[in-house]
Amino acid sequence: MKPGSANRVVVRGALLALALAITIGAFGALDATPKIDRGEIFVPPAEQLRFASFGFDAVLSDYYWLMALQLVGDASKPVEGGSVAKLIDVVTALDPWVGHPYRFAAVWLTDSLENVHAANRLLARGVAYSPLDWRNRHYLGFNHFFYMGENAKAAGILEGALHLPGAPRYLAPLVAKLRTEREGLETARGFLASLVETSADPRTRAEYLKALDEIDTERRARLLDQARSIYKKRHGRDIERVEDLSTGQRPVLRKLPPAHPHFSSFAWEIDPETGDIVSGFYGARYRPYEHIRDKERRQRWLGDAAHVSRES
Questions:
Q1: How far is CA 32 from the centre of its chain?
Q2: Is it the case that residue 12 has pLDDT exceeding 60?
Q3: Among candidates 189, 248, 193, 190, which has minimal Cα distance to 222?
Q4: Is the pTM higher than 0.70?
Q5: CA 142, 148, 151, 153 torsion-angle sign
Q6: How far apart are CA 271 and CA 274, in angstroms?
Q7: In the predicted model, is pLDDT for residue 118 greater than 90?
Q8: How far is CA 48 from CA 43, 85, 97, 127, in A?
């Protein structure tokens, strides 16, 4: 080895050893356990940490990732979502190509609308740095639908994941349902029909065809809704059974449409909770399912946010 080359190796080795020593010293100074025990999480800005890491951003990212796991793993006290958000923000800012921390934030940051917004910002970063991973888009779209009631925006985000590797087959039918609210039933049907034409996988194609059956059933249910309105005006009361629309004096319909395009053994029913006319095959109308408690929570969050916005 030439003398000059040997000197360069020695210098590089010395610099690496110095960087490791400084980084280890920095870790030693970051005494996180007492602060976590007291519930006081101080997280320095990512830019400061990056400057102090001497190039070991991923190592420092792992440190704060372990701190986040320690925080949520303590069953003796409730998790403070704001602290989780700060930790995962640093984790993903130092090493934005990580995977699981983004979904971790999506799961844990659901206790308030503010934290859902924080999770969405993190998930958007995950989409930007890992555009071929369908999972970040899935959680981001779910948050916009489930917690924020933004169905059209959720549909647009989820549609971007449809053709990514590993994306589940149920995404396209969900996108169609989310699009129905703003764009109408026929748009959703056209969207799924185009996927049927272009899909080469028989199982995926079968999922799309089943979703089209559900749309056709919803069209018939809406016809029955119209007949129900006419019945109320004509008789001054609501129906007791769906069959009332086609029986008795002055029926509205000559006969009821089938409750499913292919299975004739199913009948129409009145949902005891919602009062909707539903197919016995599906048991619900064509819309994304959500429990009444989830809907009430979202309305409360959005109402509180609107109140704060007006006051400010």
A1: 31
A2: no
A3: 189
A4: yes
A5: negative
A6: 6
A7: yes
A8: 10, 18, 19, 24
* Non-local CB neighbours of 255 within 8 Å, separated by 6+ positions: 246
Rounded to 5 degrees, φ, ψ at 133 are -95, 110
For tokens 């008795």, the residue is: 248
CA dihedral (43, 128, 103, 81) in degrees, to 10, reads 30
> Do 183 and 175 form a contact (C-beta atoms < 8 A)?
no
> Could you tell me the CA-to-CA distances from 20 to 28, 30, 91, 92, 192 in Å, in that order?
12, 15, 20, 22, 56
Query: Other CB atoms closer than 10 Å to residue 279's CB: what's the count?
Result: 24
What average pLDDT score do residues 122-135 get? Answer: 97
Q: How far apart are CA 257 and CA 246, in angstroms?
A: 10
Cα torsion 163, 168, 174, 178: sign:
negative
Q: What's the chain's average pLDDT?
A: 87
Where do we find the tokens 């102090």? 52
Rg (CA), the chain: 28
Query: Which amino acid, residue 223?
Result: L
Residue 73 token pair: 């793993």
Least-confidence region, from 79-88, 159-168, 177-186, 271-280: 79-88
Q: Are 253 and 195 in contact (CB under 8 A)?
A: no
Pair of tokens at residue 24: 């280890």
pLDDT digits (tens, 9 = 90+) for 230-265: 999 999 999 999 999 999 989 999 999 999 999 999
| Residue of 169, 174, 177, 159 whose CA lies nearest to 203 | 169
Strand partners, 117: none
Query: In terms of Cα–Cα distance, which of 172, 176, 180, 165 is closest to 130?
Result: 165
